[in-house]
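[Protein data]
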Amino acid sequence: MTVTIRKFPFPYCSALAIANDLDNTISVNTYFTMMDYLNGTSQTYFGCGLGLEIGNSFWFFNGTQTPQVSYFSQLTQKETSFSGLCRELWESGHIDTLHTFGNFDEGRFHRKYAEIAINELQKYGAKIPVWINHGTKNNTQNIGADNSFQGAVRDTNIYHMDIVRDAGCRYYWLGRMTHVIGQNAKRNMNILSKTLLQNVINSVKYRSINATFLSYPDNQVMHPSLLQDGSQIWDFQRWINAWGRETLLDIHDFIIQINPSVIKTLIRNEGMMILYTHFNENLIFKEGIPQKLQMALQNIKREFESGKLLVSTVARLLNYIEVSTHLSFSTLKQNNKTIIIINPKLNTPLGNRMLTLPDLTGLTFYYSSDIPPQINFMDKEVHVSQNTPNKTGKKCISIPWKQLEYPN
């Protein structure tokens, strides 16, 4: 029997994760009402919940004079009204991103703030899988090769890479951005021509820019990267728009970013995309969700429910990509049935990691025999779904993709 891994969880043929940075979110009510609207199914002030799976980011501290939603009040250890609900979404997986330790656009970051943060995470048994850099060069806490980034530079009072690892961060955004609609996509003319154009522009117009901020020339979602302290990380890129320039990426730009033509192209390209936005910025609670945004989000919901577009959090999509790309398995013929034996040790460019059963969610295997195979993991049979053949006629089984449970 021939067994191969399907690129996407069945039945999807594309995938989208919305990576929201909480910059200039000034209202706790707006933050959580938006999350309820996107993820829940109950009635909210913004309308009936869409029942999607969209994550968010958070800050522990606000080191500026501007109002910002943060876990602690300013640079103190006093909890805000945000903290309790924040912990709920840590636990459910809907807050999966540390957008640095806080807004330090005015400087003043020190390692002690990272130590306070990790103590708080460990106090509640929380792990945050994604790190996203933030803001101006005054944010010396940032990670990467830029001269102003000292988060991974040892022997400074800024260094915190060891703490970030303890926080559970595995996937890092250091500044890479792309305009190609769909990464890890099929090699059609749209993808090939746009990738080539972007590479030419990078090599000519942006040749003086730190390579940390340029898109990957092979249009992959992520690659391993080596930091100043010797740490190896997964460095991923985010999609900003199709027209080739960065804008404010606020709630109004978000409407354009997810318009139906973009989503249609993503599906056609059979790509995966981490979308970069600030959907709470300039979102006014009393005015609610702009009608055009409601329509764009409803379109995403339809494509998700049709089985064409997987919508998930950044952490879950990146983990799926890592696992499905590097998974190893063997097959065993037993009593006229084939058993797929999944190796619990995932061998990646970052080294080995041990898989757990939740890491296997969504894995789909094509098979060529008349009798569906069985999947075993850690000497136990795994529950699978027998799927209907797709348009190519291929038969497959899958470990069902299950949405995160949103705490209504």
